[in-house]
TrEMBL record:
Every Spore germination GerAC-like C-terminal domain range: 219-384
Subcellular location: Membrane
Residue ranges constituting the Spore germination protein N-terminal domain according to the UniProt record: 28-197
UniProt KW Lipoprotein keyword: yes
Presence of the UniProt keyword Lipoprotein in the record: yes
PROSITE patterns noted in UniProt: PROKAR_LIPOPROTEIN
Similarity comment: Belongs to the GerABKC lipoprotein family.
Protein known as: Ger(X)C family spore germination protein
Keywords annotated in UniProt: Germination, Lipoprotein, Membrane, Palmitate, Signal
Amino acid sequence: MDNRLRKILIVLIALPLLLLVSGCWSTVELNDRAFARMMIFDKGKEGIELTLGFPLPNRMIPGMAGSGGGPQSGSPYTFITKEGVNVGQALRNIQIDLSRKITLGQSSVVVIGKELAQEGIAPVLEFLAREPRVHINASVFVTEGKGKEIANIPTICERFPTDILTAYVLQHETMQTTIKDFLMANYTGGDMIAPLLYFKPQKIASEKGKLQDWMGVGGAAIFKNKKLQSTIGVKEMRGALWVVGQLADAEITIPSPSDGRKVSFFIEHSHTKIKPQLSGGKASIQLQCTANARLLSSDSMLDAEDPKQLKELEHQLETEVERRIMSVIDKTREAKSDAFQFGNFIAWYYPKQWKTLQPQWVEHYSNRTAEVIIHADIDIRRLGTETKSVELEETTS
């Protein structure tokens, strides 16, 4: 009797578990999905022009084209462009022409064309905020021209254009600005800074010398109230990397304090701390930047082992870093944009005072009533095997 009861009990426990492993009626099989890895937004004639980048499963095996086993006849990816009065309609128009269900969960890159960015990216943010399938950590880029020009670039080192843009961010060659950053900035006025891309016709040796659009890092775009206000160059963008704490390394060349000749250093292990100060109703932002440096090359006759000369070199480096950071901050002030979200730091440290300061904050920041104080601390750690220049060694030998 006990064995029968035990068996019945086991069956009763097992049946609900079997229900858990049953399939879901609403799922879409992988073979029926089209995975969009890149979303590109441009201004259309009557609304939004949306371009999606898809990998092609039948060309994913190098040297093969699907199950037929023949030679590969094209790129392993494609771009599809459609227009609509809004993003949702443009997406639907792309879906109508596809034999597979569009899946946006694999999208890791968002590209916005300059003309649309100048008009305002509110429609794009509206879609991204409401679409649950889009990852908010996807990187956002702005282009000098049409965003869909990226479809024409040659993929030399990578298989997909998405991988090139992802590598720019991972290697810290440009800034990383995500959908989440834009959505958070939207609640405090929509001021933001994002990486900028350029396309330039160039003959590519590996492509038999054909003239193709070469893509590269072109600086950064400054937004004010969700609209592109101005752009900055690559050097200023590198200064922005210091501010947001994304600088992995840098090369800085300075004149020697002894004879004015060039001395180059490699900067690494950088760190930036931002702390606001509020005194007498006036706010200031303090940036504390620290980093290590190692000597790369020297045309100078200086002796790097001399503590006095080494200290002067460190001071020169610190001055140059402070100058680069202040240069990009001045650009955001000219655009009247709190692109680095300094106001958020005041709100975190002084929440009560921020309620009074907030309405005039951007004005205080842009007209320099709110001071930005930068202090760099660079420590020269390594001088290499040659502490003196080769020319100095020859002179003294």
